[in-house]
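User: Hi! I'm a student and our assignment asks us to look at how structure tokens line up with a sequence. Could you show me two examples?

Assistant: Happy to help. In each example below, the sequence comes first and the structure tokens follow. Example one:
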Amino acid sequence: MAQPFDPASLQTKGDPFPIADQVGTEGSRYATFAISPSGVLVYGRGNIGRGLQLMWFDRSGKSLSTVGDVANGLQSVALSPDELRAAVTLTTGTPPNRDVWIIDLARTVSSRLTFDATDDTFPVWSPDGGKIAFFSLRQGDPGIRVAPATGGATDELVLKINRPVNVAVPTDWSRDRHFIAYTQGSANTDVWILPLAGDRKPFPLASSSFAEDGATFSPDGRWIAYSSNESGQYQVYVQPFPPSGGKIQISRNGGGQPMWRGDGRELFFIAPDSAMMAATIDASRQFQAGVPQALFASHAAGAVQGRRQYAVTKDGKRFLVLALQPAAGSAPLTVVVNWLAAVQR
């Protein structure tokens, strides 16, 4: 799209108008177009970047199997408590729209869970596997919604966001079913907790001038892990829950997207080079963490920042990863000249 702009008043004027359609994008960050000072436009169609493939790995990094096909529109993955299904964000249709889909992992059959014309993204399973929380941009009611995992029923708005907050992305659901952890914010994000009983008044867990993200509850509910860039790069931290003010740094050279083993005795995270990391945890008396060890190269997209790009089985032996795949050739570019004539009419 283009719209006339008045540099004297620093205001747009007139109506926006289309120049080209199906311009390639990569999430909300990049688009495949550029304009020269003389007004020549060049753009590419379709999604950019390498495709993503859901892949199972063991702890040594051996590829066990793939799930479904390579796709550009995959974003975020969550494994059901029974480990038989995965919930993903998938972009489909024209114009593109993001929705939550459920994948039967044994049969690799996908079914769509959300159908709204606006984006529904970043699913999180309830502890019993019966419901899924997700972030929705529904007109008039943006926020966190909860829907039955089987679909076919009306979802429930459990948290509405108001400007200037742009997102409220659920990242975990406590095992006692009492809390949903979510990432909230605009420029710098914070970790908040939504109680699902009582007055349901959210409260901050990690809120500062830095960016915090990716909170996940320990299986016993006594601890919560998250990532923060307060040190100058994203690191993984753990603090007691409910919060008491103290925290322990887990990663040494950067990390994000923490996840607990099912018994709480190991914490996994992704390093900046996409290595899958594991740190032993002993919380029997005081909380103690071992030195993180690299398990394998995960090839996960959005290694540290971004939404969950992997899931791990309760025994910590298998990892379901949204793995980047090699680029499949190059797409043609389109050059457009004289489109400025529309502005000058």
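Example two works the same way, sequence first and then tokens:
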Amino acid sequence: MVCKLCCKENELRNSHIIPEFFYVHLYDAKHRAQCMSSTGSKQDYKRRRPIQKGYREKLLCDDCEKLLNTRYENDYKKLWFDKDILPQTLIEGEQIILEGLDYHKFKQFHLSILFRASVSSLSEFQHVNLGPHEEELRKILIHDLPTSDQKYVILCHAITKNNLEIQYGLITSPFKTRQPNGYLSYGFCFGGCVWYYIVDSREVSDFSQFMLNSQGTLHIMSIPWEKFLRI
């Protein structure tokens, strides 16, 4: 079997698309997580259904699993959960400004999720189709190449519900949407936020105030789950 990242023939691991540490907030006493799937539009999320473990399939070899884990995932987990980087509650429209992020590692982590979703054959990720960008992302990840903040732009909203609490226990299948000026983007909900990854051959500066920038700053606006579904 051929690894989707290094393209070498090897025994493959059961690879998570979204890392397992995002699912710990979803598990109940029977270690079941409640996840939501969609037919491609965020307005069309189906009823939550239980799964025993975060979505996995045989995608990456052991070396590539370790590569993503040591390069990006370990540091991201420490930042996002161990340091409690987000508050527990936010009022609608309140903005958080994260500063001092390691731009390269932070972005590569998110691009790795986007890449894994695109190469996945699981139905939950069937709407992520990057076309020629898939191979470009593969090379960026395997060679740890830098990208400008106007290439594969990342935007973020914190999702709140139930007395303004941030919804860490919410993971959905990705959806496809168009941003202003026709930019194609894919939305993923995990880690208390909805993340938008803009996939376009053009450089994108329209969202300069809110997108992750090369100085390591990210503006996160809060939005209630119900309002998010209507946008």
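Here is something you could point out in your write-up. DSSP finds four helices and eleven strands in the chain.
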